[in-house]
Amino acid sequence: MTIAYIILAILIFGVLIAVHEFGHFITAKACGVQVDEFAVGMGPALWKKQKGETLYALRAIPVGGYCAMAGEDEASDNPRAFTNQAVWKRAVILVAGAAMNFLLGLVIILCLYAGATAFRAPVLAGFMDGCPYESADGLQLGDRFYKIDGHRIYQYYDVGDFLNQGSGEYDLVLIRDGRKLRLDDFHMVPLEYEGQENKMFGFYFGFEEATPGVKLRYTWDTAMEFGRMVWMGLSQLIRGQVGIRDMSGPVGIVDLMAETGEQAASTADAVYNILYLGAFIAVNLAIMNLLPIPALDGGRIFFLLVTWLIETIARRRLDPRYEGYVHAAGMVLLLGLMAVVMFNDVLRIVTG
Q1: Are strands 179-187 and 203-209 parallel, antiparallel or unpaired?
Q2: pLDDT, tens only, 122-164
Q3: CATH of domain 118-209
Q4: Which of 83, 132, 136, 344 is the most buried (most CB within 10 A)?
Q5: Smallest Cα–Cα separation from 192: which of 123, 132, 113, 273?
């Protein structure tokens, strides 16, 4: 089944890229920008067809794609060229790719939750015998954890994660009887309870019926949880807690998806887990692509705003070729980083 999971992983990764480029494509068309080519995949063309002004192509390597717009990085006399559009139109086109990735992540999560009958919720459903945290001034049955030390609680396991990171004194925000309640400097540490091998905080979480509204909320909350995980990973990278060796590119992601499928108890579980991971990667791509780094959409948006500000003050048009040079240099650096990451991925797979 490993080959099947690898193929499924490659297809999912290809869909993520194709959806991203489709976001650029559909908004460019809606904004009246001339699109010269819309391609899914990279490398030699397996199929292509000219329809109107746009060449549609399916290319051999299913880990990329592009939406080539007229005048994207150069001055043009074409009134429908990208560089001749209003700033807001260009910004919308650039944001659309990441927006489509995020939307795809939401759709995948919602589909995965479609058959759910209940969700484990960060709501207190009971306390262990002797738990000292249940009181009129403390925790009570039915309380929903909303924030711990400023961190939003999306899933029930967030409670344990953030409590275990703390020092024993917590600023809690609970939802009780539909209202938010603050408990500042609330003392809470794991204790020993009869019948338990490890120290615990001493409370149980309940379940919430999976009504259509609850499914939508848990879909959104899961996407927000994914986003926080991405930001935490970036923070660790900036602080030096993780390095390039800990990063994964397309090869590593496909291998991780295949490994996730292999470790599942059944084929249905494998597909579910791979799709869940695919939703996380979709949200990851949405966030990473909007970082203000040259060659990424976020970098293009950053330079768009800087250029607009300079042109507004100087009252003259800047040559877009200079921005193109910056993005070209950024692309070379990104490709170099991807090559290093890919080498590490292959080495990790080969050495086991």
Answers
A1: unpaired
A2: 999 999 998 999 998 899 999 999 999 999 999 999 999 999 8
A3: 2.30.42.10
A4: 83
A5: 132
